[in-house]
Amino acid sequence: QQGYDLLRAGILEGKNKIQMTVPVSVNDIFNLYKAVLYDSPELFWCEVNGARYSYNNKGHVTYLMPGYNDLAKDIPGNTEKLEAALSEALADIWSLPTDAEKAKYAHDYLTHHVNYDLNASYNQTAYSSLVNHASVCAGYAHGFQYLMQQVGIPCAYVLGYAMGGYHAWNVVKLDGEHY
Questions:
Q1: What does the alpha-carbon distance between residue 21 and residue 159 come to, in Å, rounded to a whole number?
Q2: Are 124 and 8 in contact (CB under 8 A)?
Q3: 129: which of 21, 87, 97, 143 fits an S-S bond (Cβ 3.0–4.6 Å)?
Q4: Crossing angle between the packed helical segments 29-39 and 2-12, to the nearest 10 degrees
Q5: How many CB atoms neighbour CB 65 within 10 A?
Q6: What 3-state class would DSSP assign to 142?
Q7: Which residues are paired to 162 by β-bridges?
């Protein structure tokens, strides 16, 4: 948990080099890094691929250098754009009485406002779906996850393999059941 918190805080600050002051092994660092990114769709400037690390002679990571896309050049400005898009997406959700209706609303919002585009910029992020309105499955899933987080509905980003390729989904918890 301490390593997770260190990485998340460093990425939120836009640090290019995050010192790991708790022991994290070389074997565990990328799983920890992915966990932070898969839990945090608001970290749209951070890429799963492209991260690097240095380590000591005990096999512990000393520094992690996250992989950032060019949205990192203006994190405050791009966050403002994401927040505006989020407000627009959530405008009518608050009046819905049940979590199931809110989840369906978020799903429908994304399917009606986002074009599936393999060449979409930042297509592995919530930014692509909510701001640019063009993405792939990962962007849809991160966008949905971010919407659910804003309305307090537990939602996880999940990766898997289906029909011959990698795919991203969500697991959402409604009325005590996972869907």
A1: 29
A2: no
A3: 143
A4: 60
A5: 15
A6: helix
A7: 165
- What is each CA distance from 78 to 31, 37, 72, 126, in whole angstroms? 27, 17, 8, 12
Q: What is the pLDDT of residue 163?
A: 86
| Residue 138 pLDDT exceeds 90 | yes
Report how far apart the first and last C-alpha atoms of the chain are (Å, whole number).
Answer: 26
pTM: 0.93
Phi, psi for 120 (deg, rounded to 5) = -65, 140
How far is it between the farthest Cα atoms of the chain? 57
List, for residues 16-41, the tens digit of each pLDDT value.
Answer: 999 999 999 999 999 999 999 999 99
Q: Which residue has the tokens 């399917």?
A: 111
Strands (DSSP E) contained in the chain are: 18-19, 46-55, 61-68, 115-116, 134-135, 155-162, 165-174, 177-178
Mention every residue, 6+ apart, whose C-beta is less than 8 A from residue 150.
Answer: 86, 90
What does the alpha-carbon distance between residue 160 and residue 147 come to, in Å, rounded to a whole number?
21
In a 3-state reduction of DSSP, which class is residue 79?
Answer: helix
CB 59 within 8 A of CB 15: no
**CB 120, CB 132: distance < 8 Å:** yes
The 10s digit of each residue's pLDDT in 139-151 is 999 999 999 999 9
